[in-house]
Amino acid sequence: MSKIQLLLTDDDGIILATFGSGLREAGYDVIEAISGEAALQIVKERQVDLAILDVDMPGLSGIDTARKMRELKVPVIFLSAHAGNQLVEAAVAEGALGYVIKPIDVVKVIPTIEAALERANELKTSKETENRLNSALNTGNVANVVVGMTMERYRINQDEAFELLRQQARSERRKVREVASDMISAWETLNRLKPNTSNTKNGPLKF
User: Fold this and answer.
1) How far apart are CA 162 and CA 46, in angstroms?
2) Of 9, 17, 76, which is closest to residue 36 (Cα–Cα)?
3) How far lies 67's CA from each of 58, 70, 99, 187, in Å?
4) Are 45 and 3 in contact (CB under 8 A)?
5) Of 93, 20, 99, 109, nearest to 55 (Cα)?
């Protein structure tokens, strides 16, 4: 199993050396960058699981670097000598998953790093799931969903269920996917309905 790749970015060489060494001893692979510009170049060339950015750097600041990191889908936590509300708010606005205050105690920082990595993985999984669902609605997978629903409803096999869907599409002179999408929408609407038992206690509704 490959090690977690951390990108440590700070214009202070002593911080890079000491903090970087501590993170390596904790079992991480650490890539070091002396500026925001250098950090961005690294993430374009290498896989990075989490970037640790100093907020106050000359040139491209940590906040500006984080904004560009977000566009590149790289999760970020901030490193700062200050804990001012404005800095924290700016970090949150740029999607930071953590905030570490100097001086650094590596042992105390590790839980923040692990929590950020876990949250980043959750967000990635959530996005991948969303993409798969959107893809299903734009491909033949939506038809497979309806076929499965039809098989369950009428206790028939897959071929018979698909044939029913195809016949319906043919009768409406529409594409199978379009009919399937409408059927799923109708099914979702029905699932949101809550029956009023006072209207049905004396028998089924009459139309």
Assistant:
1) 46
2) 9
3) 16, 5, 15, 41
4) no
5) 99
Q: Token digits for 29? A: 């692979």
Q: Identify the CA nearest to 98 among candidates 52, 55, 61, 66.
A: 52
Give the integer Cα–Cα distance in Å for 30 and 16: 10
Written as six digits, the tokens of 55 are 């907020």
For the chain, helix (H) and strand (E) counts, in that order, are 9, 5
Task: Report pTM.
Answer: 0.60
Strand 76-80 to 50-54 pairing: parallel
**Is the domain 5-134 a CATH 3.40.50.1010 member?**
no
pLDDT tens-digit series, residues 117-169: 988 888 777 666 666 656 555 545 667 777 777 877 788 887 888 888 889 98
- Name the one residue in this structure whose structure tokens are 């905030």: 99
Transcribe 37-98 into DSSP letters: HHHHHHHHHS--SEEEEESS-SSS-HHHHHHHHHHTT--EEEEES---HHHHHHHHHTT-S-
